[in-house]
Design a protein that fits this description.
The chain has about 500 residues and is an alpha+beta fold. Among the domains are: about 90-135 and about 355-480, no CATH class; about 190-350, Immunoglobulin-like, CATH 2.60.40.3680. It is built from nine helices and 18 strands. The strands form four sheets. An eight-stranded mixed β-sheet has the order 8-7-10-5-4-13-16-15, with no helix packed on it. It is elongated and about 130 Å long.
Length: about 500
């Protein structure tokens, strides 16, 4: 029994540890592979740049230490003339090539740092310009909708109701009559709306609607007795100006039952039918809708003529007929049987579609990577001096800068196709002869033109893959298969 009493607490403690460990494992599994770099994130690029600067500092220190080591070894071998001559001849040439490459590495690093700040600045400014453009387009049609509600035909009936009172502590039930509002469905609706879009006189850059409303409503008394009804026709909501609001019955204008109300009384015999004509002119928000709010619509017809371009139907109630004639659009909603429509339906102004948002900011942000890709191809293909590298970088950013501002007035891919021709023409001058000039053009096409084009087309990954394959094939042909005449000079010149 003592063994059992000792083992149970230990077993419980083990279960607690197992549950805790399983909880930790479950929480850590969805994290994925940690610490993977993502060059599309600014923080990752900054971190990579810091690591590059640290590695460059170590490289300079290593070159200095290597030069000191070569000098010490040469000093130690000064007594053996043959060994001294062989060592100095072999290592002095290698060290000289390393020293010749070091200024190029320094220049490229400085150009990349400057390119990162320039690309980041242009990317941020272009992003703000895109946001301002979208806000300006949305501002022209922003605002609440001008909504016309369907009229209601109300009548009152008296219904008995029972309530309990207490007399000397005893409950007594009493019965009385009270007035209750009931509503009569419209027997027909024929509505015609003409909408014009005009500039808002109070707010610059914003549009408003000028609406002419004309509706014929039919009402039939389906009750078994003569009844007094109230025709309630509310004005449109969110209007800034309402003119000539008139309600007529059988050609006679009706007066409201009270001041500042939109209720009109009338009497109908059983089975009798009458018509109401409602007309007004209103100015308001650049969106007009008609709301039935679950009321039954019988013999309903709404005809809207939008006398402006880019008109489209609002909400998800698709018109039964749509006709476009020039800048005018005619929408028709027609329901024959009893139909309940929950959402408002009508017309709004569809703004122009702003396409390719974020494309240029991403291109500008990743341009230093494309620049490094292009410079590596050039160094492996033709001989470059320090001035050649600086001029090539200046041409690259001049063309990217031109693309940034030309894309504000034209689709980005169109100006880049024309800029690419000038880019290729200028890089022809990097070569000393025809073959080296052609090598510079091929390197520019694979390392700059196509990669930049990849960010302007939908198939970005596929186009970048094509550029990478073309670059690899070009270097293999140039260095391995000797199918292209390669210059014998060093790829780095002073």
């Amino acid at each position: 029994m003592q063994i059992l009493q000792y083992e149970f607490p230990l077993f419980d403690l083990t279960l607690k540890h197992v549950r805790a460990l399983s909880t930790i494992v479950i929480l850590q599994v969805p994290r994925g592979i940690p610490s993977l770099p993502d060059l599309t994130q600014p923080s990752q690029l900054i971190k990579l740049g810091q690591q590059g600067i640290e590695m460059f500092s170590l490289l300079i220190l290593a070159v200095g230490m290597l030069g000191g080591a070569i000098a010490l070894i040469a000093f130690a071998l000064r007594g053996d003339a043959e060994s001294y001559r062989r060592f100095v001849a072999q290592w002095s040439d290698r060290y000289t090539q390393l020293l010749r490459a070091l200024p190029h590495v320094t220049l490229i690093l400085l150009l990349l740092v400057a390119s990162f700040f320039l690309g980041g600045t242009l990317s941020r400014r272009y992003h703000f310009w895109e946001r301002a453009k979208v806000a300006q387009i949305a501002k022209s049609v922003a605002g609440d909708r001008m909504e016309q509600r369907s009229p209601r035909v109300r009548y009152r009936v008296q219904e008995p109701y029972t309530y309990t009172v207490y007399v000397e502590g005893r409950p007594i039930e009493e019965e009385r009559l009270r007035d209750i509002d009931r509503y009569l469905a419209l027997s027909g609706s024929n509505i015609q709306v003409a909408i014009e879009q005009i500039p808002d006189p109070q707010r610059r850059g914003k549009n408003v609607y000028l609406t002419d409303f004309l509706a014929i409503y039919r009402v039939q008394n389906t009750l078994n007795e003569v009844q007094e009804f109230f025709f309630e026709m509310p004005p449109p909501s969110q209007y800034s100006l309402l003119q000539n609001f008139r309600v007529e019955r059988e050609g006679q204008e009706l007066a409201p039952t009270a001041l500042n109300t939109y209720q009109f009384s009338f009497r109908l015999a059983p089975g009798e039918e009458t018509e109401f004509r409602v007309a007004y002119r209103a100015q308001g928000s650049p969106r007009w809708t008609y709301a039935a709010y679950d009321r039954l619509l019988s013999n309903f017809r709404l005809y809207i003529e939008a006398n402006f371009p880019n008109a489209n139907f609002a909400s998800g109630i698709v018109p039964t007929d749509t006709r476009i004639e020039g800048k005018n659009t005619r929408f028709t909603w027609q329901f024959e049987d009893n139909v309940a429509v929950r959402d408002p339906f009508g017309v709004f102004t569809a703004t122009e579609t702003v396409k390719n948002l974020g494309v240029l900011p991403r291109l500008l942000f990743l341009s230093p990577v494309i620049l490094l890709w292009w410079l590596l191809l050039l160094y492996l293909s033709v001989s470059l001096s320090l001035s050649d590298t600086a001029i090539a970088t200046g041409i690259f950013w001049s063309w990217v800068w031109a693309l940034t501002y030309l894309s504000r007035v034209l689709p980005a891919i169109l100006p880049w196709l024309f800029l690419s021709l000038g880019f290729l023409a200028l890089t022809w001058g990097l070569g000393r002869d025809r073959s080296s000039s052609l090598a510079a053009v091929i390197s520019t096409l694979c390392g700059a033109i196509i990669p930049l084009l990849a960010f302007l087309v939908p198939q970005t990954g596929l186009t970048l893959s094509l550029a990478a394959i073309l670059s690899a094939v070009w270097l293999a042909v140039l260095h391995w298969y000797h199918l292209y005449p390669r210059q014998s000079r060093s790829i780095i010149d002073n």
